[in-house]
Amino acid sequence: MSEKLIAPSILAADFANLQRDVEMINHSDADWFHIDIMDGVFVPNISFGMPVLRDIVKHATKTIDVHLMIVDPDRYIQTFADLGSDILTVHYEACTHLHRTLQAIKSAGMKAGVALNPHTNVQLLEDVIQDIDMVCIMSVNPGFGGQSFIENTYAKVSALKEMITRKNASTLIEIDGGVTNKNAKKLVDAGADVLVAGSYVFKSSNPITTVKDLKSLVN
Ligand code: DX5
Ligand code: ZN
C-alpha cells in the first residue's frame, strides 16, 4: 500500500508568524502544504489571496496543494500555476464545465483536483474520474477551520474508492475538515490517501509531534 500523506492547512497558522509556521512544517513529517483560498462568495469567508500564497511558496519546501473555494475558478488557473501551485483543486459546485476546467489545470502544468461539498454525491464524478488526479472530500462545510467532522464522510470515501478501483483510475482521495487522531485511521482504512489537518496541528501544543503522531497512526 502506498504511503498516506499529511497536509497541514495553513489557514490555522499564525499569519503574523507565517514564515515561522511554514518553516516548522518544512521541518516536520508533513508531506504537503494545504492552502485554502476563499473569495467570500462561494463560501461565507475570505481567507487570503495571491500575495500571501507567493510568500508561502517562497519559504515552503514541500508540495503546494491549493484548494480554491471561489466562483469561476477558470479565471485564475494560470495565475495559480505561475505562483507555484503543484495541485490545484476546484469545487465541483463551482464549475459548469468541469471537464474543460480539469484540462486547463493540467495544461498549465499542475495536478487537477476536484472538491466535493458534504451534500455532493461522489457518483457525480463517475464520467470524469479518470481525468481527476485527486478528489477532495469535504468533511465539513467549506469556509472555516475548526469545525466538527461529518460522520457521513466514511461512506463517501468507501463509495469513491470503489469507483476509482472499478474504473482503474489512479485518483488520490483527500479528506478536508475536522481531521484528528480520532478519525484518521478509519478514513485511511476506508480508502483515503491524503489527510488535511488545520486546527488539530496548529492549535496543538507541539505541532511537530502532532504531525509525526498522525503520520505514524496512518502508515
Ligand atoms: C475548510 C478548509 C479546510 C480547513 C481545515 O473550508 O478547506 O482546509 O482549513 O481546517 P480544520 O482541520 O481545522 O478543520
Ligand atoms: Zn481546504
Automatic annotation (TrEMBL):
Keyword set includes Isomerase: yes
Recorded metabolic or biological pathway in which this protein acts: Carbohydrate degradation
Cofactor: Zn(2+); Co(2+); Mn(2+); a divalent metal cation
Molecular function in Gene Ontology: D-ribulose-phosphate 3-epimerase activity
UniProt xrefs under InterPro entries: Aldolase_TIM (IPR013785), Ribul_P_3_epim (IPR026019), Ribul_P_3_epim-like (IPR000056), RibuloseP-bd_barrel (IPR011060)
Segment forming the signal sequence: none
Binding positions (substrate): 9, 67, 143-146, 176-178, 198-199
Active site: 36 (proton acceptor), 176 (proton donor)
Reactions listed under catalytic activity: D-ribulose 5-phosphate = D-xylulose 5-phosphate
UniProt keywords, alphabetically: Carbohydrate metabolism, Isomerase, Metal-binding
PROSITE patterns xref list: RIBUL_P_3_EPIMER_1, RIBUL_P_3_EPIMER_2
Enzyme Commission number(s): 5.1.3.1
Annotated cofactor note: Binds 1 divalent metal cation per subunit.
Pfam families with a match to the protein in the record: Ribul_P_3_epim
Domain of life of the native organism: Bacteria
Residue positions binding a divalent metal cation: 34, 36, 67, 176
Family that this chain belongs to: Belongs to the ribulose-phosphate 3-epimerase family.
Record-linked HAMAP family: RPE
Function as written in the Swiss-Prot or TrEMBL entry: Catalyzes the reversible epimerization of D-ribulose 5-phosphate to D-xylulose 5-phosphate.
This protein's name: Ribulose-phosphate 3-epimerase
Gene encoding the protein: rpe
